[in-house]
Design goal:
about 450 residues; alpha/beta; Alkaline Phosphatase, subunit A; 10-stranded mixed sheet; 3-stranded antiparallel sheet
């Protein structure tokens, strides 16, 4: 393979130091952000996607429904009880938080956090791949949609010179941000160099799954590296990529590199969270900490996306402790730290958690749960009407369940997202954001103030 052909493969795959642009920026190094055009700081919408299908019933527990404990003899969370650390944290006499979400209880009580139950996609698929795709494209049941709802919404916003209006802290650009509008994916904001292992795997045509270790900083089998060698390789491949960008993309390629320089100039990596704030260790805590850095750097972030996997618990899900509890502890701690870190900036930020579908109401024979339908979302910050559980939640009797087994979807996720877009991001026409679906204010659950 020639050097030029390697450049083309490398450039096409966009393995740029963990920075992937969905579309080339139109102009560079101008600090006229959307905030200036809209009179102050920009409004920011952060989506936290729980990949794998979160068990909403053990996250926000309907302990007041007798059908809940009957359906889950091994994994039900105990009803609230003073002094019992394993019991649910009471919210309203009917619902309680999983005890691992104790960090969220003060936010709920202060009104900064709301909950929407029995929410999800109306499509009846139980395929992780299909349902994640539908939620990110915003067109349930339609596999031919080529772009994501966040990208389409970005196109509806006033023009901005910010290169970081739409940002994902992910290894590659997620489905929800793909499309014609500019978007950027950052693996890490403090790691800009191009690593040799990524470039080699791209040039060799290695499948993405095989590159995961390299893209996450893993070592290559049989190759012992040193810092000097890594720095030398990084510099060499940075030059290779830069040359390729100039050769093949002209001004657009140079703009991409200049956008990286803009991020370096803002220096969000030299960041210390607000005093007293500690993010939990793990992918989500790390991602939300970096997102707070980007927002505080005043880079014009308006649409943001992070994700966390591992929610598919067919076996040994656990009750108050176990696999689900470990993830919920990370979720609650990360959301709480993000809220406290941003402090007064949270008035301009709304965070929404989403998952592709819920779990069966009944536990299975392996003390886990199988693929279901409706689940739960948290809404935090901005104009959120917190301190309450929104949505229509049914009694957990068989006749009320979807297909006799699942929590139904009584709130379409597009109506919940639409409520955030209309009431927080202040864009009323969502016909192009959710093609083929009319978002109607009368379908809003009231999770945000109008």
């Amino acid at each position: 393979m020639t050097l030029n052909s390697s450049r083309r493969i490398f450039l096409k795959s966009s393995a740029l130091a963990g920075v992937v642009f969905g579309a080339a920026p139109r102009s560079l190094m101008r600090s006229v952000f959307a905030a200036e055009a809209r009179g102050g700081r920009p409004k920011t919408f952060v989506v936290v996607f729980q990949r794998g299908a979160c068990d909403g019933l053990n996250t926000v527990v309907p302990y007041g429904d007798g059908g809940y404990r009957k359906a889950r003899p091994s994994i039900a969370i105990p009803a609230p009880k003073d002094g019992d650390a394993a019991a649910a944290i009471d919210l309203d006499g009917h619902f309680g938080l999983h005890p691992a979400l104790s960090d969220l209880a003060p936010l709920y009580r202060s009104g900064a956090l709301g909950i929407v139950h029995a929410v999800g996609s109306p499509d009846n698929s139980r395929s992780h791949f299909d349902c994640q795709d539908f939620m990110e494209s915003g067109t349930p049941g339609v596999k031919s949609t080529s772009d994501g709802w966040m990208n389409r919404f970005s196109a509806a916003l006033p023009r901005t010179e910010s290169k970081f209006r739409s940002v994902a802290l992910t290894q590659t650009l997620p489905r929800v941000l793909r499309g014609a509008s500019p978007a950027v994916a950052l693996a890490r904001i403090d790691d800009f160099h191009v690593r040799e292992d990524i470039a080699m795997s791209e040039a060799a045509g290695m499948p993405r799954a095989g590159r995961r270790g390299a893209m996450e900083g893993g070592s290559r089998p049989g190759m012992a590296g040193t810092k000097d060698a890594d720095d030398s390789s990084a510099a060499a491949f940075e030059k290779l990529y830069a040359d390729a960008a100039k050769d093949m993309l002209g001004n657009a390629g140079r703009e991409t590199f200049e956008a990286i320089e803009a991020l370096k100039a803002a220096d969000p990596a030299r960041y210390t969270p607000r005093a007293g704030v500690s993010y939990p260790r793990g992918r989500l805590g790390d991602s939300l900490k970096q997102m707070a850095q980007l927002i505080k750097a005043d880079l014009g972030v308006e649409l943001a996306f992070v994700d966390i996997g591992g929610w598919d618990h067919h076996t040994a899900e656990g009750a108050s402790t176990g696999q689900l509890a470990n993830l919920l502890r990370q979720l609650g701690g990360s959301l709480s730290a993000f809220h406290d870190d941003l402090d007064d900036r949270m008035r301009d930020v709304v965070v929404l958690t989403m998952t592709e579908f819920g779990r069966t109401v009944r536990e299975n024979g392996n003390r886990g749960t199988d693929h279901g339908h409706g689940s739960v979302s948290f809404v935090m910050g901005g104009p959120v009407k917190g301190g309450r559980v929104h949505g229509r939640f049914p009694r957990l009797s068989e006749e009320n369940l979807y297909e006799g087994r699942d929590l139904p979807v009584n709130t379409d996720f597009r109506d919940l997202v639409g409520e955030v877009l209309v009431r927080h991001m202040v864009v009323s026409d969502l016909r192009k954001v959710f093609p083929g679906y009319e978002v109607k204010p009368q379908a809003f659950v009231g999770a945000l103030r109008s």
